UniProtKB/TrEMBL annotation:
The keyword Zinc does not apply. This is Apoptotic peptidase activating factor 1. GO terms for biological process: apoptotic process; regulation of apoptotic process. One of its GO terms (molecular function) is ADP binding. InterPro entries: Apaf_helical, CARD, DEATH-like_dom_sf, NB-ARC, P-loop_NTPase, WH-like_DNA-bd_sf, WHD_APAF1.
């Protein structure tokens, strides 16, 4: 139920909000937080004008709870509606993260810091969650970095959000609050906007009488953030989700406590401080994957059709693929055989579903990892399509394939491993390298598609 103060604030400033906001941008954030459904978004978007959409969104907010109000506030901040967010700040439900009893309600603390809520369909992975919490306890007494890394679609962001959803952890390690920032592939201008939003959120929580002007450069933003974190939030945790570029991290190298999720384990080589890491190496086991599909399709495990286990095997443990298939089956419950065929035939482009994940389909998520490689290394990576499933090979084999010196091959393979594009069994001497089944399937399909294009061009 919505607090009376929050309700009054929405009603009081309704005209200001209707006049200025673009609901489409705000609703994306609210869907990611799990406080707005796809059906509700479609219903709001059907209104012909932006102002009518805004009015519809506010009307819906008045019927929701405190979490929805906090999500709306955070969306305003993320989209740089600072003046409007300032109007609503005093009405935020619950305590601010730096108050003495802030940990009495973990969800309020996390929501205020922009941490995504638990997905509607959620299956716990306690071993990995506990590993992340164990590393976070290393930041209890001193600053440093915890890196959670793994291949595309392995569920890193969900695991990170779940790991900090723990009252004891917040009380003992991060009484200054937890602040989440979704990064992705950003240029300098958009990175500045992200840090401006974070600084605004931190300043608002201090109940400042007057807002400072937003920092106008990355250097100024870094210094503003350094002051806020070290002087006002000295025992807080900053979560940087989906980091791609080591240069981005330099803007946050301010001697604080940071948890980051990434596909590239070597990113923190460029920054100072203690470093800890957790690898999200493997995906879900069959039972966990079946549980996800059962939740999506609202079936008991024992009532799933016989195609379910075959679908799970074809998903190769990827939480992303399992979730995409589950969401599709929720809408089309008669298509079990059809989606099984698409998986068996490696039709990745057809396995897509709008979601809060950055990529709608598996082929997009896999391709994004490859595109960040240098051109010459990208072609070498595609050559790995010649590998056989479940076979591990030494660097010497690839030295022959690529006609390169063994030392140069080892450096290239290290880059692939660091970017979660390849795995290494370092317990063997020499070390052996291998691809995840999904990565191999994707490379084979991509090479086949390129070959077909070449043939068509020649014809």
């Amino acid at each position: 139920m919505l607090d009376e103060g929050a309700r009054s604030s929405l009603l009081r400033f309704r005209q200001n909000l209707e006049q200025d906001i673009k609901p489409a941008y705000l609703m994306d954030h609210m869907i990611s937080d799990g406080v707005l459904s796809g059906e509700e978004e479609e219903r709001i978007s059907e209104w012909p004008s932006r102002k009518e959409q805004a009015a519809s969104l506010l009307e819906l907010l008045l019927k929701k709870d405190n979490s929805a109000f906090i999500s709306f506030y955070n969306a305003l901040v993320k989209e740089a509606y600072y003046d409007l967010a300032n109007l609503l700040h005093a009405a935020l439900p619950g305590d601010t993260p730096n108050s003495s009893n802030s940990t009495s309600d973990v969800q309020i603390v996390l929501s205020a810091g922009g941490v995504p809520q638990r997905p509607v369909v959620f299956v716990s992975r306690p071993e990995l969650i506990n590993k992340i919490r164990e590393k976070l306890y290393h930041l209890r007494q001193d600053t440093g970095w915890v890196t959670v890394f793994g291949m595309a679609g392995s569920g890193k962001s969900v695991l990170v959000a779940e790991a900090v959803r723990d009252q004891r952890l917040i009380e003992e390690c991060f009484p200054g609050g937890i602040h989440w920032l979704s990064i992705g592939q950003l240029d300098k201008a958009n990175l500045l906007v992200k840090i401006q939003a974070l600084c605004f959120r931190l300043e608002q929580s201090l109940d400042s009488q007057s807002l400072q002007r937003p920092p106008t450069s990355l250097d100024e933003a870094k210094e503003r953030l350094r002051f806020l974190v070290l002087r006002r939030y000295p025992r807080s945790l900053l979560i940087l989700d989906d980091i791609w570029d080591s240069t981005v991290l330099k803007s946050f190298d301010i001697h604080c406590r940071i948890l980051l999720s990434t596909r590239n384990r070597s990113l923190t080589d460029s920054v100072s401080g203690a470093k800890h890491e957790v690898e999200v190496e493997s995906g879900l086991d069959d039972n966990k994957a079946l549980e996800i599909i059962a939740l999506y399709t609202r079936n008991a495990l024992e009532c799933l059709p016989e195609e379910a286990r075959s679908i799970v095997r074809e998903c190769k443990g990827s939480p992303l693929v399992v979730s995409l298939i589950g969401a599709l089956l929720k809408e089309k419950p008669d298509r079990w055989s059809y989606y099984l065929r698409q998986l068996q035939q490696k039709q990745f482009k057809r396995i897509r579903k709008s979601s809060s994940y950055d990529y709608d389909a598996l082929d997009q998520a896999m391709a994004a990892s490859i595109e960040v490689l240098p051109d010459e290394h990208r072609e070498l990576y595609r050559d790995l399509a010649v590998l056989e499933p479940d076979i591990k090979i030494p660097a010497k084999v690839l030295s022959i394939l690529w006609d390169l010196e063994p030392e140069e091959v080892e450096d290239i393979l290290e880059e692939f491993v660091n970017k979660s594009l390849l795995f290494v069994d370092s317990h063997r001497k020499p070390a052996l390298y291998y691809l995840h089944d999904l990565q191999l399937d994707f490379l084979v399909e991509q090479n086949r598609a390129q070959l077909e294009v070449r043939i068509e061009v020649r014809l």
